[in-house]
Amino acid sequence: MTKIETPCILVCSLDDRTGYCFGCGRTRDEVWAWSKMTPETRRAVMAELPARLETVERKPRRETRRTRMARERSAV
């Protein structure tokens, strides 16, 4: 079985305005269909995620893996 690359950081909650998960930036439909997508389609979605995450209104209430890693990189 091939491992599927995923942007999921296990902080699953959708922004009400955009419909994007504020953890990974995907839509509910994209999360549901992720394992059925071709690798090319997944890569295309992943390329859009950084811009999507800039548009979400709700921010995580706890530190995510992404913010912890950014904090640790800046401390070095």
Description:
With 76 residues, the protein is an all-alpha fold. The protein has a domain at 28-75. The protein is built from 3 helices and no strands. It is globular, with a radius of gyration of 13 Å. It starts with 27 loop residues before the first helix and ends with a helix. The model has no long low-confidence stretch (mean pLDDT 87).
In short:
This protein has 76 residues and is mainly alpha-helical. 42% of the residues lie in helices and 0% in strands.
Topology (SSEs and partners):
Blueprint: H1 28-33, H2 39-53, H3 65-75
Primary descriptors:
42% helix, 3 helices, mainly alpha, 76 residues, single chain
Q: What's the number of helices?
A: 3
Strand fraction: under 5%
Query: What's the end-to-end separation, in Å?
Result: 37 Å
Shape verdict: globular
Structural class: mainly alpha
Give the uncertain stretches in residue-range form: none
Compute the average pLDDT: 87
Rg estimate, integer Å: 13 Å
Largest sheet: none
Order of helices and strands: HHH
Total strands:
0
